[in-house]
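Most newcomers find our protein records easier to grasp once they have seen one. There is nothing in a record beyond a sequence line and a structure line. Getting from the letters to the tokens is the skill we practise here. An example says more than a description, so a record of this kind follows:
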Amino acid sequence: MEGPSRLPPPPFKLHKSASSPLRYSGAIRKVAKKNQVRDNLLEGGNKEEDNQVEEENLRTEEETAEDSVFMKPPTDSLDVTDTGAHRISLRLPSQDSFSEDSLVSEERLAEEAKKKNEEEEAAAKERQAQRQMMAIDELVQSEKNYLRMLQICTVNIRNSLLNLQPPPPDLDSMFLYIEEVMDVSSRLLSMLDQKQLTPDNPDFLENLCVSFLGLSSDIEAAYKEYLWNYNHISLVENSYKQKEALWNDIIQIIKSSAPEVNATSLSFFLVMPVQRIARYPLLLQTIQKHTDPSHPAYALLEQAAHTSVALNCRINEYKRFREV
């Protein structure tokens, strides 16, 4: 008895794709299953119906595999592949809008930061200008108070002491050279008032420096003699303290002549020129500290500050020379 004739293998196609490994694996799986079906057919013809069902399943799996290769989830950018394997990336409108918004936001932040820096710089300059004006005003007002104290001492107190019977001995030697000191101080204030400028006026600083530099030689001449004579002032005042009645009269005259300062000795007033000449460098340097180097009068201010320091050095040298 002849066995069942051998059936030829069913034709099938293997779809190749260079872009998807899934298509290769599906094709290999399909060939393996078809080979198994062919072997089953060789073993017996009674499985023909099952083989037909199996072939239908293989065709269904092949179509499903091919469809799944071309299905991809949506992304923000679309990739299009042509036959030459060139990739083109298409940008979604949402990304462009996001980039533009980010750029606008960064520009806004930069403008706000620049505006804030400008405001801070303006505020710093305003504070510096106020401090400069306060330093200038302190020099002028302290010079006026200083001259007023010397006038009280040399006019009111001195005249009252001369009216004592008998007048204190060597009284004139205590006021030696004080008239010259008062004269240069009065001239400095007069020069500052000539142009009728206030300390907040930018031109006032220039006028102050020019006035101080113009009087520097006279200031040196007056103060160096006064400071040399100050040791004699202290000796004379100590001699007055040894006479109780005389000293009590002097204290009474001082308190009645200048009740607002509560002074208790002549040296309270007579030491002021010694303190004043030493204070000029500090006052001028304070003004310079709060003056912008771009100020038109900055060079004059720097010169005036250096001159005040040099004045003190020469005066101290002269005093030491005279003492020797």
Remarks:
- Residues 93-162 form the longest helix (70 residues).
- The longest strand covers residues 77-81.
- The beta strands are 77-81, 87-91.
- DSSP finds eleven helices and two strands in the chain.
